[in-house]
């Protein structure tokens, strides 16, 4: 399968600069070979490996802050999490995936690419919530936004960001999730366009900034009230 990989567009060398270039080429070969054989990528996707997959994921890095802990929910073939780890060595990436055959592929890919800023974690988001906390969560083609919010927000610190790669359905999903966004206590939710001049069309993200969930806000308020009463009692 790997011989079917098209020549990368010139812009790929700009996006995958420095050490990232050789890793991007190797990951393209991995996706087109073992990735197809093991069912993580469809054979018809091989001719579009650069524009639809590698570049489309890499430009998400424009929206990722520096030096963060990022979790890729339902990582699958490592899109976009593994690609982000290639182009952004400053971030720590956790590839979260429940299926063993996929985590095996992901770990083999990480080892082959020599990526020291990546861990592969087998599990579901709801199993990890409360045990791990991240600055950024990303996801691509995992679930509609209303369902993705339930998985992602418990993984984020207050002020952390969900970056959901959605494409042309982004505006509709954002509107459909309006009630849940309010109930979840998020700070902001907006559409973000990345990759201008690098991918066509530019990639559309939904960016949600996590707030303090209403339940936790009430708990914090009660805690402050108790602390205040205790302080007044000590001074009486």
From TrEMBL:
Check the record and name the SUPFAM superfamilies matching this protein.
S-adenosyl-L-methionine-dependent methyltransferases
Q: What class of enzyme is it?
A: transferase
Pfam families from the UniProt entry: GidB (PF02527)
Return the GO cellular component terms, semicolon-separated.
cytosol
Q: Name one GO molecular function term.
A: rRNA (guanine-N7-)-methyltransferase activity
- Write down the InterPro entries for this protein, in alphabetical order: rRNA_ssu_MeTfrase_G (IPR003682), SAM-dependent_MTases_sf (IPR029063)
Q: Where in the cell is it found?
A: Cytoplasm
Q: What UniProt keywords apply to this chain's record, in alphabetical order? A: Cytoplasm, Methyltransferase, rRNA processing, S-adenosyl-L-methionine, Transferase
Could you tell me which residues belong to the region Disordered?
210-236
Q: What is its EC number?
A: 2.1.1.-
Q: Which sites bind S-adenosyl-L-methionine?
A: 74, 79, 125-126, 140
General function of this protein: Specifically methylates the N7 position of a guanine in 16S rRNA.
Family that this chain belongs to:
Belongs to the methyltransferase superfamily. RNA methyltransferase RsmG family.
PANTHER family xref list: S-ADENOSYL-L-METHIONINE-DEPENDENT METHYLTRANSFERASES SUPERFAMILY PROTEIN
Q: What is this protein called?
A: Ribosomal RNA small subunit methyltransferase G
Which organism is the protein's source? Streptosporangium sandarakinum
Its ancestry begins with: Bacteria, Bacillati, Actinomycetota, Actinomycetes, Streptosporangiales
């Amino acid at each position: 399968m790997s011989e079917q990989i098209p020549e990368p567009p010139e812009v790929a060398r700009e996006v995958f600069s420095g050490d990232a270039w050789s890793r991007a080429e190797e990951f393209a070969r991995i996706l087109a070979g073992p990735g197809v054989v093991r069912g993580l990528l469809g054979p018809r996707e091989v001719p579009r490996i650069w524009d639809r997959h590698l570049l489309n994921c890499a430009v998400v890095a424009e929206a990722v802050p520096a030096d963060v802990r990022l979790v890729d929910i339902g990582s699958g073939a490592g899109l976009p999490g593994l690609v982000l780890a290639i182009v952004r060595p400053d971030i720590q990436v956790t590839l979260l995936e429940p299926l063993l055959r996929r985590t095996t592929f992901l770990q083999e890919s990480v080892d082959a690419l020599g990526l020291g800023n990546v861990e592969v974690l087998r599990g579901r988001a709801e199993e990890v919530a409360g045990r791990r906390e991240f600055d950024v969560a990303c996801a691509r083609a995992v679930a509609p936004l209303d369902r993705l919010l339930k998985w992602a927000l418990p993984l984020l610190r207050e002020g952390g960001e969900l970056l959901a790669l959605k494409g042309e359905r982004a505006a509709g999903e954002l509107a459909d999730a309006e009630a849940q966004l309010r109930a979840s206590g998020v700070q902001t939710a907006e559409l973000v366009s990345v990759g201008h001049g690098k991918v066509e069309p530019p990639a559309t993200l939904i960016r949600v900034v996590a707030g303090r969930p209403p339940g936790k806000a009430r708990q914090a308020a009660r805690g402050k009230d108790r602390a205040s009463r205790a302080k007044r009692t000590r001074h009486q």
